[in-house]
Amino acid sequence: MSIGEGNSGAWVEDTAPDGAAPGGIFGRGYRTITVGICALIVLSAFEALAVTTVMPTISTALNGASLYALAFAGPLAAGVVGMVLAGNWSDRGGPRGSLYASVVLFVAGLAVVGTAHSMAVFLAGRLVEGLGAGALTVALYVVVARAYPPALHPQIFAAFAASWVVPSLVGPVVAGLIAQTLGWRWVFLGVIGLVAIALAMVIPAMVRLRGSAEGAAVPWNVGRIGWSLLAAAAVLAVNLLADAKGWLLWIGPAAAAAIALLALRPLLPRHTLTADAGLPSVILSRGLAAGAFFGADVYIPYLLTVRYGFPPLAAGLSVTASGLTWAGGSWLQSHLGVRLSHVRSIQFGALALSTAIVAACATAVLVLPPAVAIAGWAVAGFGMGLMYPRTSVATLEYSSVEKQGFNSSALGIADAIGASISLAATAIVFSALAGLGGPWPFAGCFALTTLPAVAALVLARRIGQSQ
Question: Which long-range contacts (C-beta less than 8 Å, at least 24 apart) are formed by 10-13?
């Protein structure tokens, strides 16, 4: 299949000859569903970012310092299972059922977390929440494939990226204020009602999507679900063993990562890990970009704090800058449309990301002005804004209707696995080089994350080739 084939929407209203609709994603027939699905993403993003702010308070209140890392790694691992389930369900009968179920799981997890009186119960809620959040991402991708014409896909995925900007700017502050005034529980419980309102805006459009008849021939893939459970367990192990000591620090994470990659193969399109042309390279480049960006992202504010004495709020400037430029890159690629090919968009994005990580490494080693690292990370965000929406669009263009769910879940799984393995690897490198002091722990992490960024740049040219 060549790119551009096999994609079919559920309905098209008032479309132009090129498949676009007057008014774009906010035009008649699309406005309500666009606002609704973007609101779901905003709320999911807010919760993901807010928990970082309130987790120290929760850890103290529930006496759970020893399980602190698991509160973050658990939802990520559970999300892999959610993605596979939602993808299989969407391919069987459309995205309606998986969307509703994912929202129910997400809300149930929030309720358990918000009412927990022990760390064990809190972690159980986080797992349910992660299961729902992972499934929600895939379900929304399939909704885009079925509800919007292909000409609007770059715009809606740019809107998805923009939906992370406001939570990244104000989410931690709002969460802190809520925790100080109403208590940390309302950071989670307060989101529940807003999720219900957002879902209500999406339901009318869901009624108009095709039912299960189109996917009746797609069976439940019990084997793939089993592999997702193994992959999730391995992802958890990789992150937990990053804090191990002695020989276990080196052997444990490597063995867990190998198991994760083994379990990953059935969850991705064939030949993804060998970077075959077309869709496999799209999926792999997404995972590599996630590993490069998120593996380096956590060390930029750390560098500014430790090496340059920035207070936490000032060190967060790098995160704010990259969030804004990510949205800007997404906006630009959506407005350029076909004038900027998928291959070029991903090449430019990977080049920007590689350059930014090298700049961060140079800042650490050469003690350059901190503005170099901050400006560089803004460039990284812009590069991700160019890349991420186009990998999403390309995935749907390569997907037949009966494969939209599976391929969308593969894209999300590549994200999760790429980021989690990179975070564990950089944690090991940082710990190993900490004894040298100075810039070397940071330089080691940045050098390591340069590798997947450069690999994504090299792979980009294969995305547009025939399979």
Answer: 10/94, 10/146, 10/147, 10/208, 10/209, 10/210, 11/147, 11/208, 11/209, 12/149
Q: What is the pLDDT of residues 262-288, one digit of tens each?
A: 999 999 999 998 989 999 999 999 999
Residue with token string 């309720």: 111
Phi and psi angles of residue 254, each rounded to the nearest 5 degrees, phi first: -65, -40
| CA distance readout (Å), 425 to 164, 445, 449 | 26, 8, 9
Give this prediction's pTM: 0.80
Give the residue among 355, 358, 364 at the shortest CA–CA distance from 443.
Answer: 364
Residue type, 348: F
What Å distances lie between residue 295 and 102, 366, 419, 430, 453, CA to CA?
A: 27, 21, 6, 11, 11
Find out whether 291 and 422 touch, Cβ atoms under 8 Å.
yes
pLDDT band at 424 (very low <50, low <70, confident <90, very high): confident
Is the Cβ–Cβ distance between 98 and 135 less than 8 Å? yes
Query: What angle separates helix 279-297 from helix 370-397, to the nearest 10 degrees?
Result: 160
Question: Taking residues 17-33, what's their average pLDDT?
Answer: 73
Are the C-beta atoms of 348 and 339 separated by less than 8 Å? no
Distances (CA, A) of 457 to 155, 164, 316, 329, 343: 24, 25, 28, 17, 10
* CA–CA separation, 426 and 436 (whole Å): 16
d(CA 353, CA 378): 10
At 280, list the tokens.
């496999």
Query: Can you spell out the DSSP letters for 11-25?
Result: ---S--TTS--TTGG
